[in-house]
């Protein structure tokens, strides 16, 4: 009996942990989407492409400039975030007065461009990116499973960054401005806050979050041009389920759905790819605004 | 903020006069040009290429019915297009149905799928609607990836074209062309008829001001759902026809880039215009044909067209022409 249970656990534990790792990425990506949407009212379809760029920049930094993982973890989000700022200034900023769907179409086009360029430059097969050996210290080796230290780190890093983002938005002055500008941009502008610049920086920050997730993902998934597209549609479903009203909501939903996906892989593997979408359908039927959404 | 927003696909305000089939005079002339082109072109151009254009034109018209007249941006139309293709291919190959029945089967499955997805998606609007349709379509994609009848990565190959009504063999491209042309024109006129019916007027009212349409006593959700089902059915017909033309149904047609492609076609031609989707489909299919050798650059070029259209060319080809001529096309 107990042996049986242990065996079940041995089967289940790695998948559940893998789900948690996926959840870490869902959380980071949906957090960035939610921040951008809150401030700019734009669904950033290029989020997956920017996630992929983060991974590629990390790879380039290592291969071409010899900058290791830790440097990339800081530099890649900054570089890709700067790219995001450029995009917001030159393109997205022109669309604020139009239907929000144009923002979706524009960023969809950008995603095609970015992914196409990387596919031309690097091909469709992935590039390897080895995690630093230091993470072996975090390896968890217990009777029911072996867990590579790097994956432990991904979950920790994601939780920390999500927490830090939440703190910045809820507890600092700049976060207060941000929340105010999300609700009433004209009024905040009347108080002398430069709202257009805040929008630019918000977009840059959201993109930087995606790139950060990309660097985290580089050692786990092979660095390839399609890695973002595979993630982003699931993340959209996560965003619909969580609702975009709250920061914590998107983080909790992200981790939760990652876990559920992992569990599905154990108990009903055929459904693992679709379980998130099924949950989305159920949530839409019962709470159309999303679990944490308002209105 | 809300009153400065320019809704997607809002047509230019031009006086509408009823004429032939409810077309305005300019539209009737444009329709005449379109029919003439459909009739004459197979004598000059490669019929398979033309059939591809017509299938995508019908697909884009079906998509445009939603965005142009109801104001809903679906990012999941590949599901109906691709599934229509699979069902038609399966019906023609395994069940041995005649081509017209196989296409009808594709359209029926498209509409059933549209009923399910639409029923969920109309609970939200705007950006959420786009994301929900995208996510549900991705679910359909995963289903097609795993379901045994679709053949997974191989797709359904060597689909027989069969004989129309069991009597007219369609093996010649030239014969099949007339069937495809008929399907396209019938679909095009059906959409036009629907848009100009009392039902279509309510659809437009929902797009312009949903609360007001509700206050007038219309169940706006029902209208949205019916439009969605019709659009999905026609997308299924388009996908089924394409599967017969090429004798193959694959995952490409059901995956999300295909949903993006139909948005692009309609955007290039002109959102909410009558003839825009047809022109857009012709432009994009032609482009893909000539640029096929450039491989992945096609994606980049499509992305650039997307960005250019959104930033500087929101009326699209037909919308711009209509604007210059001061007519609604």
From TrEMBL, chain B:
Transmembrane helix keyword on record: yes
Subcellular location: Cell membrane
InterPro entries: ABC_transp_permease, LivM-like
Membrane protein topology class: Multi-pass membrane protein
Membrane spanning residue stretches: 28-46, 53-81, 101-120, 127-149, 175-195, 225-250, 262-287, 294-313
Main location as per UniProt: membrane
KW Glycoprotein (keyword) present: no
Record keywords, A-Z: Cell membrane, Membrane, Transmembrane, Transmembrane helix
One protein family per Pfam: BPD_transp_2
Stored PANTHER family: ABC TRANSPORTER ATP-BINDING PROTEIN (PTHR30482:SF17), HIGH-AFFINITY BRANCHED-CHAIN AMINO ACID TRANSPORT SYSTEM PERMEASE (PTHR30482)
Protein name: Branched-chain amino acid ABC transporter permease
